[in-house]
């Protein structure tokens, strides 16, 4: 049955897109009947009646300027009913998080208005208990349970007009509780990533546009943008929603916060790379250094007390390992807003508290029933979460739970240290509030996006959710918003972010749009060329580099890029010429000399290649990379004795399978076949997987040097025999 209804759903979608609405309605009716959805069949009947009236009016030849809008509404209604039918079918046996929650919630049959009324009542009761210093843990648990029920009810509702009306009325009432609104917005956001629901989109719009609290508005806007991205095709066909979104185009303030919110969402693209860098490069290197650091500490125990001071010995250890450079790069990324907290707190998300989806989106509350914080820790955590604009609510919860799990002796010591710093932290908080130039809305966006990112990446049942961060955020394709954000300033900010971080596929469309306005910007064409090159589009990259070279005299970087793309396109003589141009600017550059030699080899000019390779050998004597190239070109030039001599020097210090293979080639050319076979066998033993291919690839060149093809084939048979 599941497969049948999924096929029907696709047929409805296709029929609606082709405006075959009678066909779509017929299939939807079958879907509703099979799932016994009586109320939805009544809604379908009304929709069909509307379509019949519209059709009769059209057939009469009357002019109807609103016809397109009505057709759009009818199509969206049919799609929504098809969604409801398919969801009902899946809910029968799907074990995913959404459907398990849906089945449980259906049994409870709760209304959003009832939950909110109970919550308000319990919160008032909680306030009285707190004011009289009575133990309020049981009431707190009831409030938290009501928030979870609110979350699950909104998360699993679909096309429920009363639910969305109730939450919007509550949001704009003036007495709404921010915790309730925060989880409600998150529930609707997650729901819209599962099933499209126009009512929820409108609810998020209402909350964003009609509430005054920046933290709530920020959550509403983030949810809206993710919903627009996940449901583009449905929203594009909804004229009413498009008209409402179009009103944003008249607001400079909305433009500013849209730009900032999109910048933050786009920035999540870098989180995984930053965390991998921390884990695989920095943390792994620190672990390698651990024995050396322990050794230093055992030699000088007093150093343990001043590890944070500048110490030449510590700096030397870091410099040798290359960690200094990596730490400097990470420091730069952090100053640009990169998310380092993910790495720090990821392991702490395994606590039971995070088994419930709702808890990932709860604004931090130091009085949460599952936390047992003393007065000093409560003050410390509350102040820290206010001071630190980078740490999101779920990370604050992680930190708070980690502190409660500390051994008692360590906790007492930490509490004593914290007490002496609380006053200082409060003063810093006041000072920051006076000096801050970052709007509260922007900080709220950053924190909420990070909460969402952690949920989709770390939640125990994350596989049951559609992760909006799995692919780059294509903000230019968003209905209305894409047009608003396609201006020069936004494209430059996001395009340069992607380019600088090495996401060339994502950077390219933006750089290309910018080039339409800045066709005479050589630097921009260089970036376009480089992004094309990194996307393996060498012909287009060469075209972009040539445009840059027409706009300015090519420097070392551009000249080298021209050479490289020409080489990748097989235009070796031209590539060699460009490498020569680069060498006039930097004649002692080892890498350039080797690249030029490589181009000359491919172009068949062994003499020029040797000239550059001997120059490279003079600059970097006994460099095995240089010696290998030199030995190979000497072999290709027929200088077998010179080649053999150089290869023997190489294998005495850094022997590789390819070295023994090439010595075998040298012996073959010299006619010493027994020695050739010995060296070939060593090469085969060192790399049995790749040996045969490498050997066969070299045969044409060796034949040109005088080897006989048949002999080469028979030698291979001797080498490979069992």
Remind me, CATH topology of the domain at 622-722? Serine Threonine Protein Phosphatase 5, Tetratricopeptide repeat
- The strand count comes to 0
Number of DSSP helical runs = 37
Tell me, briefly, the overall form.
globular
Radius of gyration, taken over Cα atoms and rounded to an integer in Å? 34 Å
In terms of DSSP E residues, the strand content is: under 5%
- Describe the largest sheet: none
Low-confidence stretches: 296-311
Please sum up the structure shown:
This protein has 722 residues and is mostly helical. The protein is 74% helix and 0% strand. Among the domains are: 2-93, no CATH class; 271-340, no CATH class; 373-434; 622-722, Serine Threonine Protein Phosphatase 5, Tetratricopeptide repeat (Alpha Horseshoe).
Please characterize this protein's 3D structure.
With 722 residues, the chain is an all-alpha fold. Among the domains are: 2-93, no CATH class; 271-340, no CATH class; 373-434; 622-722, Tetratricopeptide repeat domain (Serine Threonine Protein Phosphatase 5, Tetratricopeptide repeat). The protein is built from 37 helices and no strands. α19 (375-387) runs parallel beside α21, α34 runs parallel beside α36 and α36 runs antiparallel to α37 (709-720). The longest helix is centred in the middle third of the chain and has 29 residues, at 271-299. The protein is globular. Residues 296-311 have low confidence and may be disordered.
Characteristics:
single chain, 722 residues, mainly alpha, 74% helix, globular
């Amino acid at each position: 049955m599941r497969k049948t209804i999924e096929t029907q759903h696709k047929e409805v979608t296709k029929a609606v897109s082709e405006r075959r609405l009678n066909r779509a309605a017929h299939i939807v009716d079958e879907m509703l009947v099979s799932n016994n959805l009586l109320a939805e069949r009544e809604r379908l009947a009304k929709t069909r009646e509307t379509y019949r009236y519209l059709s009769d009016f059209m057939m009469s030849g009357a002019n109807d300027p609103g016809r397109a809008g009505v057709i759009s509404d009818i199509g969206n209604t049919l799609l929504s009913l098809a969604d409801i039918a398919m969801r009902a079918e899946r809910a029968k046996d799907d074990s995913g998080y959404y459907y398990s929650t849906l089945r449980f919630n259906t049994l409870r049959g709760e209304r959003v208005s009832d939950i909110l009324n109970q919550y308000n009542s319990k919160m008032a009761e909680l306030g009285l208990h707190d004011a009289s210093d009575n133990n309020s843990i049981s009431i707190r648990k009831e409030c938290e349970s009501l928030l979870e029920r609110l979350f699950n009810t909104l998360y699993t509702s679909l096309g429920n007009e009363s639910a969305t009306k109730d939450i919007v009325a509550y949001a704009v009432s003036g007495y709404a509780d921010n915790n309730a609104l925060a989880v409600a917005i998150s529930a609707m956001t997650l729901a819209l990533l599962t099933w499209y629901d126009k009512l929820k989109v409108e609810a998020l719009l209402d909350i964003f546009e009609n509430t005054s609290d920046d933290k709530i508005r920020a959550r509403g806007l983030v949810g809206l943008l993710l919903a627009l991205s996940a449901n583009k095709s449905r929203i594009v066909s909804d004229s009413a929603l498009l008209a409402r979104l179009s009103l944003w185009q008249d607001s400079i303030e909305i433009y500013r916060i849209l730009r900032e919110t999109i910048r933050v969402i786009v920035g999540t693209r870098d989180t995984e790379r930053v965390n991998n860098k921390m884990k695989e490069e920095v943390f792994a290197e620190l672990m390698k250094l651990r024995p050396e650091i322990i050794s230093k500490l055992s030699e000088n125990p007093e150093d343990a007390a001043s590890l944070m001071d500048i110490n030449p010995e510590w700096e030397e250890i870091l410099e040798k390992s290359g960690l200094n450079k990596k730490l400097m790069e990470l420091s730069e990324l952090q100053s640009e807003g990169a998310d380092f907290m993910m790495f720090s707190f990821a392991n702490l998300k395994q606590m039971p508290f995070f088994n419930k989806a709702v808890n990932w989106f709860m604004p931090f509350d130091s009085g949460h029933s599952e936390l047992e914080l003393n007065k000093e820790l409560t003050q410390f955590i509350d102040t820290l979460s206010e001071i630190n604009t980078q740490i999101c609510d779920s990370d604050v919860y992680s930190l708070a739970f980690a502190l409660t799990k500390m051994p008692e002796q360590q906790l007492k010591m930490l509490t004593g240290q914290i007490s002496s710093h609380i006053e200082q932290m409060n003063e810093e908080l006041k000072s920051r509030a006076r000096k801050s130039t970052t709007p509260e809305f922007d900080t709220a966006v950053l924190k909420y996006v990070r909460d969402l990112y952690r949920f989709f990446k770390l939640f125990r049942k994350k596989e049951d959710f559609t992760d909006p961060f799995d692919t780059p955020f294509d903000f230019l394709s968003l209905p209305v918003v894409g047009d608003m954000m396609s201006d020069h300033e936004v494209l430059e900010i996001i395009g340069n972010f992607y380019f600088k971080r090495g996401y060339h596929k994502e950077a390219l469309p933006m750089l290309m749009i910018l080039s339409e306005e800045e066709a005479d910007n050589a630097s921009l064409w260089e970036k376009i060329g480089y992004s094309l090159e990194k996307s393996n589009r060498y012909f287009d990259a060469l075209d972009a580099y040539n445009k840059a070279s027409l706009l300015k005299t090519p420097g070392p970087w551009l000249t080298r890029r021209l050479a490289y793309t020409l080489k990748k396109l097989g235009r070796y003589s031209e590539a060699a010429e460009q490498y020569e141009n680069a060498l006039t600017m930097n004649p002692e550059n080892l890498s350039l000399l080797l690249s030029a030699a490589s181009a000359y080899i491919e172009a068949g000019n062994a003499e020029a290649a040797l000239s550059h390779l001997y120059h490279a050998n003079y600059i970097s004597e006994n460099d095995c990379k240089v010696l290998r190239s030199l030995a190979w070109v000497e072999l290709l030039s027929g200088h077998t004795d010179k080649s053999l001599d150089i290869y023997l020097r190489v294998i005495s210090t850094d022997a590789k399978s390819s070295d023994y293979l090439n010595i075998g080639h040298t012996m073959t050319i010299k006619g010493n076949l027994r020695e050739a076979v010995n060296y070939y066998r060593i090469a085969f033993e060192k790399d049995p997987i790749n040996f045969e291919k490498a050997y066969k690839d070299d045969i044409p060149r060796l034949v040109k040097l005088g080897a006989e093809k048949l002999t080469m084939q028979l030698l291979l048979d001797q080498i490979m025999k069992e």
